[in-house]
Protein 1
Amino acid sequence: MHDIIYLTDIEQVGHLPEQTQLRLRRVTEAYRFRANDYYLSLIDWDDPDDPIRRLVIPDVGELDASGELDACNERANYVAPGCQHKYPHTALLVCAENCAGYCRYCFRKRLFMDNQAERVRDLSESIDYIRSNKRISNVLLTGGDPLTLSTERLERIIRELRTIDHIGVIRIGSKMPAFNPYRIIDDPELPALLARYSTREKRIYVITHFDTVKELTPAACLGLEILQKAGVILANQTPIVRGINDTPEALVKLMGKLSYIGAPPYYFFQCRPTVGNRPYAVPITEAYQTLEAAKRQVSGLAKRARYVMSHALGKIEIVGMNEDYFFLKFHRARYQEDEGRFMIFYRHDKAYWLDDLVPADGQPHPVHERHGDTLTPRVDAVAQ
Ligand code: SF4
């Protein structure tokens, strides 16, 4: 049994000079710090560019106030307390209020702020909503990190969902295998629970979140193997983050190892324009070219993932680019009329987000709709 120690004060970290601690305290007063001794032990403190350090130790650049707290207007997706329903077949249960560490680039950092009321303990209204909406075939447990919940609480949620015939897939989005694999290794009840509900007919997926190959330690791989033996399907999603995985070499190593261990890449995300996240964002052109350079060096299995923007309007895939244009396509859409919509924009190498782009196909920008001769913002496409 491993006694993992959680740290919430930057001063507890050690290794950082006092002046640095003082500077970072200003950041952690705005956006909380959280890590644990296992994850911090992976940092090479002699390497200023260590990707784990970059992921979890604050950066003064976070005090840049550009961006929005809820950049994709997730608040507009709530249909019941704790339940987001944006796409017809998928519901999100925001069931956890914590993570085993806080990624500095988190797009849901608002959940970890004291004055936010999005996190919910009683999900009964949400489950009733899902039960009564027969179009929903899959549910994503998210947060925060659902694996921070007790196994007992997790079981109550999964058991309820498994009583709903029209729910085929239950997904658990978790960075726990990276932040603290001992949560899995040391709790035999967890794989037992997953094995009970990940059945031949209806699997449970754990969508992992490994950003760098350095996180794929022997303990992390053991944690994943325990999940696989419990009948869980694994896939990985990660944003492309400045200083963590923004080179072809870093991505090749990550994609390769993920495919070897059976947690193949699922999505690569463009960083959302969330306030405080500017130091971590990579422009679309650079992220696309980096990912393409990496893809040329890995197997087909390692590169099945799509590179997408999770925009208020839907998941928008960056399909390609040439010297003049970006080619984008709605992979999932909030509005039915956008489903599969293909779009061409002028290439803009400093653009970070859909809203920075100018259409080149004669269509209105997707955040607008045309009324006669005037364009108006589409409902829910605007960040809060
Ligand atoms: S694990 Fe996910 S929810 Fe938690 S801090 Fe990281 S990005 Fe945010």
Protein 2
Amino acid sequence: MESLPTPSKLFPYPNGWYVLCKSEELKPGQLDSRKFAGQEIVLFRTEGGIPCATDAHCPHLGAHFGFGGSVEGETIRCPFHDFCFDVNGTCVKTGYGTKPPPKAILKTHHLREKNGFILIWFDANGLAPNWEVPEVSNEGWSEIRTTDFDLRSHPQETTENSVDVGHFSIIHGYSDVETLKELKTDGAYLNASYGFSRPGLLKGERNRIQAEIDIHVHGLGYSFVEVEVPKFGIKTRQYVFPTPIDGQKVNLKIGMSIKKIENSKKVNPILGLLPSRLVNSIVLNASFKGYAHDVSQDFKVWENKVYINSPALAKGDGPVGKYRQWARQFYYDKQENQ
Ligand code: FES
Ligand SMILES: [Fe+2]
């Protein structure tokens, strides 16, 4: 296999929070299994509504919960001998009505349910979370539209894209790119802001859109970008969630919500004649399509690039060096517990 697009041979997965799914995609009583950061996990929601992620294999005799297991009340039930485990991983019942063996402890993962998504914590040395993704109020905002892609890439690479200012014009066709706020960092948080003009939904120079983006990055798995198009009075939030599947692939989920449009006429005089709910949905559809298109323009590069540790940076690049320095905090220098 050719070399991985990864910044770390020893630690393929950066520590941090990763999105597994939208909250509404995990209903009470539902159980799903998947691969996350090279491990098989199961994700379920108890009948009482608590989301939980555990190792996929039962600590009794190793059956896989994803093949015949189920949610039973506030527990997960193994298909092999009906042992049940609560959300802390404690075995609370065997299928024989006997005392649960104290050694039967199911490994659970740290989870958060925030901003409409379920997030899982990864730490290469198994340590508990030492920072959080902030809550953001969605009052006055639409639901979040999402779609996702499985790609050969890495969370550090896809996240680097938002500060790789040089490619904005080459890959995405943006012009007049300017830095509105220099990159700054605070622990696991990184922020920068840019302005540019980009092709509009209709072809032609005079339909170009002037946009301002404010990038909020929380670790390498969770970013959202506030986008404003002042001319039309449109504000959107664009989410970017790369979640590592294994050492080669990420599941890239993108999402968008739109702030309720106050003045539809500003967007387009014809839209001013329509009910505001319809206008919001039309603009969200069109903007989401544009967003998904822009993100997919990067795929060919991401899937085939390698990670260059000491890149030959040039004037005109964005603050890639600063970003990489900040990103180092999500890897250990040495492996401790494994
Ligand atoms: S293997 Fe799960 S209950 Fe026996
Ligand atoms: Fe890009």
